[in-house]
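**Polypeptide and fold**
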Amino acid sequence: MQKEIRVHRLISIGTWLFIIAVWFVVTNFDFVNTRLIPTPQRVFQTFILILQNGYNGISFLKHYAMSMGRILLAVIFAIVTAIPLGLLSGYFPKVRAVVDSIVNFYRPIPPMAYYVLLIIWLGIDEESKVMLLFLAAFAPIYIACSSAVGRVRSEYILSAQSLGATEGQVFFKIILPACVPEIFIGLRTAVGVCYTTLVSSEMIAATMGIGWMAMDAYNYLKVDVVFIVIIVMGITGIIIDELLKLLGRKLVYWTE
């Protein structure tokens, strides 16, 4: 198993080395217009300058911390609300009948479609941005929790009830532990969806954040800055996902 993991890791590293090599060749030997696809050297140099001087008069770390803070706050709110509602919906059909319809109504709608309403209702400050990210993170966690309850084997519940377990004991001793693995999968999905919505949340009336940096760079055709934001967001996404997987392995030790 460990050998297979190492092989997969080497394949992943080799894949990215190949992509960087192709990027270097096509941009340094004039196969593409470097105004549209900058060279790796130019992207690296621009990144060093932004680290030293900031972007738009604000340090890069502040931009980064602002975006991560918005995501963290939204995900915390989503966890606190979506997990209880999802578990209750899976356990009580009447609750599911109410909440499911609402979640399934807004979930397919593109975030920008209702972001305008959030701005009208909550203003252009942080509240509307965090709410947009919260809605993006809420649905995957809720759906994972609700469906996980439905997959709990009925024999476990019936056995506990036959031994005199109360509804509360069945819920906390049988259903909740059985649902935790899928809850973590929903959490990983939610963080990913929330992360991809970040740029949308920082498009309007924002002056800080890496999502805003991408939009500002796009407006002024600073393609190298757009590449920097994409690379930073991609690496951050991988790190967050790996941390969540590690946390899942530590907490959900009774399952693969």
